[in-house]
Amino acid sequence: LKDVSFDLKGGEKIGVFENDPNEEPNKGRVLIDGIEICQVDLSRIRRSIAIIPQDPTLFTEMLRHNLNIAGNRSDNDFWNVLGTVEMQGFVSALPLGLDTQVAEGGSNFSTGQRQLICFGRAILNNCKIVVMDDATASVDVETDAKIQRTIRMQFADQTVFVIAHRLNTIMTSDRIMVMDDGNVAEIDTPDKLKSNPESAINGLISFNDI
C-alpha cells in the first residue's frame, strides 16, 4: 500500500474493492478513537475486533468453546446466537450438538459454516469492529446471503470492513473504497460512484448490472 489514509465513523460499514489481492500493508499506523492500536492491551484488541478470513480455522475444541472460549456463556446464549447466524438447525441435528468436537482446522465443517461460527463468536463477544477479508469468495450464494443478513441485522452498531473482489458483496455498504495499485483510487457512497461517469468502479458496476 502507498500512503493510504482514511477515517471511519463508529458504526460505519465500508466495502473495500481491490483489484490486486497482493496489496498488503507492511507498515503504518492504525488508530481507534484516537489511540494507536499498538498502545492498546492485546487481550482488549482480541475482545474488540473480529476478523473473518476467507478460510477461517477453528479451535480443535468442542463447538461451544469455539463460540466462546472463555466459557462464560450459557447454552441458551449459544442456541440463540446459532439461530441468529442460521446454524441452529444444523447443530441441533448433530448427535452431540454443542459438544461436537471440531476436527483439526475445522475440517468437519464447510467453509461457510466456519465463517458463520466466527460470526456467532463475534456476536457473543460483542466485538466493536468486524473485518471480513474476502470472506464470501469461496461460499455459495445461499451462505453469502446469510452472511449479508447477519451483517445488516446483528452488526448495525458495529464498524464493519468488507474486503471483497465481488461487487455485489459490498454494494450495500455505507461507502466503498476502491484500491488500485496500492493507492486509494476513490472512496464514496455506492450511489455517488454509480452516478459518476469518471468513477473507476462505474464501468464494473454497469457491466455487472448492479
From TrEMBL:
Residues 1-206 form the ABC transporter domain. This is Putative ABC transporter, ATP-binding protein. It is a multi-pass membrane protein. PROSITE patterns: ABC_TRANSPORTER_2. One of its GO terms (molecular function) is ATP hydrolysis activity. InterPro entries: ABC_transporter-like_ATP-bd, ABC_transporter_C-like, P-loop_NTPase. Keywords: ATP-binding, Cell membrane, Glycoprotein, Membrane, Nucleotide-binding, Repeat, Transmembrane, Transmembrane helix, Transport. The keyword Nucleotide-binding applies. It is found in: Cell membrane. Transmembrane segments: none annotated. It comes from the Eukaryota. GO terms for cellular component: plasma membrane. Pfam families: ABC_tran.
